TrEMBL record:
Protein name as it appears in the record: Histidinol-phosphate aminotransferase
Keywords in alphabetical order: Amino-acid biosynthesis, Aminotransferase, Histidine biosynthesis, Pyridoxal phosphate, Transferase
Name of the coding gene: hisC
Top-level taxonomy: Bacteria, Pseudomonadati, Pseudomonadota, Alphaproteobacteria, Rhodobacterales
GO molecular function terms noted in the UniProt entry: histidinol-phosphate transaminase activity; pyridoxal phosphate binding
Organism annotation: Primorskyibacter flagellatus
Cofactor: pyridoxal 5'-phosphate
Family annotation (SUPFAM superfamilies): PLP-dependent transferases
Pathway stated in the Swiss-Prot or TrEMBL entry: Amino-acid biosynthesis; L-histidine biosynthesis; L-histidine from 5-phospho-alpha-D-ribose 1-diphosphate: step 7/9
Record flagged with keyword Transferase: yes
HAMAP family linked: HisC_aminotrans_2
Any Gene Ontology biological process: L-histidine biosynthetic process
Length: 361
């Protein structure tokens, strides 16, 4: 066994630690650690899953035409330039496989999503971490970090786990300043939560060096089915389709995503509830003396005075049946990321943190 050495870089990948969904000895647990939709999938998506069961003996579509058409229609995009993946995670993987290898550099931001680094290392490339400014993507720092070996730059907008957002003209300035051989990946996992933001689709139309990634895991409540997609110029999509397995998405996932996309009134309702409770949660936490930046997504980053205080608060929340997230491999050790739940979950969180603060005072 010892002689079977993995490729260079593989052992530098830290194992991804997923969040727990239950707490030993505690009932009525609420999971607020994975930015899931607290209202679940749309009833239309559930019905589609049930319908799809009748055809499970058939292989799924290889070109995902029905879902791509639905996405193109909903977002006003060119269907030929859409690719679907097993979550947007898989699109990130395709990008690294296809565009980055040994000797190449892949830039991600300081608190960037874990998959950027994992996929870069798995492809044999070198991840390069760039500092943020006030927990926000720093375009100048990214441009300064680019070299003639940089092949990919990943930013999430809105960003996870910070919830911060940069304006489209900043994104455009980044795309304009990148070296010629470099693609900008604009991760829009939380794009729906920023009113009026198209995830950067209009920039993709104008520029060949931008790829937009999106997901059905957040607003659409389909994290368990794993559906994501990407939008880019035709040449990039052609490249990505070459590394994509022919049956990467299950028929159940494809049909549920299409149904979820069609149920606009459901997503509108989820969105307006999220906005209302996010603002409420932000204000309530600030009143308790917790540091919270304005969030542009479906979670807030709650910053405490120290890592020890965040640890103690997380432990107290656990005793109250509330699971929140330690983030970024403890690169933000003083922070807890809290998904915006429904009203009752948000009230429970604020109540538990006020208890904790009262005892700590
Ligand atoms: N990008 C970001 C910024 C995320 O937070 C997540 C999920 N946590 C993803 C991508 C991946 O989402 P999925 O693979 O479920 O589409």
């Amino acid at each position: 066994m010892a002689r079977m050495k993995p490729q260079p870089g593989i052992m530098d990948i830290a194992l991804y630690v997923g969040g727990a969904s239950h707490i030993e000895g505690v009932s009525d647990v609420v999971k607020l650690s994975s930015n899931e939709n607290p209202f679940g999938p749309s009833p239309a998506a559930i019905a589609a899953v049930e319908r799809s069961a009748r055809n499970l003996h058939r292989y799924p579509s290889t070109d995902h035409a029905a879902l791509r058409n639905a996405i193109a229609g909903a977002h006003g995009l060119d269907v030929a330039r859409i690719i679907c993946g097993v979550g947007s995670d898989e699109i990130i993987t395709f990008l690294c496989q296809a565009y980055a290898g040994s000797g190449d550099e892949v830039i991600h931001t300081q608190h960037g999503f874990a998959m950027y680094r994992i996929s870069a290392l798995a492809a044999g490339a070198t991840p390069v971490e760039v500092a943020e400014r006030d927990r926000t993507v720093d375009v100048d720092a990214i441009l300064a970090a680019c070299t003639d070996r940089t092949r990919l730059v990943f930013i999430a907008n809105p960003a996870n786990p910070t919830g911060t957002f940069i304006a489209l003209d900043e994104v455009e300035r980044l795309a304009d300043g990148l070296p010629e051989q470099c693609l900008l990946v604009l991760d829009g996992a939380y794009a729906e939560f920023e009113p009026g933001y198209d995830g950067g689709a209009t920039l993709v139309e104008k520029r060949e060096n931008i790829v937009m990634t999106r997901t059905f895991s957040k607003l659409y409540g389909l994290g368990g089915l794993r559906v994501g997609w990407g939008y880019a110029c035709q040449d990039v999509i052609d490249v990505l389709n070459r590394v994509r397995g022919p049956f990467n998405l299950s028929s159940t996932a494809l049909e549920a995503a299409e149904a979820a996309l069609g149920d606009r009134s459901y997503t509108e309702k989820c969105l307006s509830e999220n906005t209302k409770m996010r603002l409420w949660l932000t204000e309530a936490l600030r009143e308790l003396g917790v540091g919270v930046d304005d969030s542009h997504a479906n979670f807030v980053l709650a910053r405490f005075g120290s890592a020890a205080e965040a640890d103690a608060c997380e432990a107290h929340l656990k005793t109250q049946g509330l699971i929140v997230r330690r983030v970024g491999g403890y690169k933000l050790p003083e922070a807890l990321r809290i998904t915006v739940g429904d009203e009752s979950a948000c009230r429970r969180v604020v109540h538990a943190i006020s208890q904790f603060k009262a005892v700590a005072a």
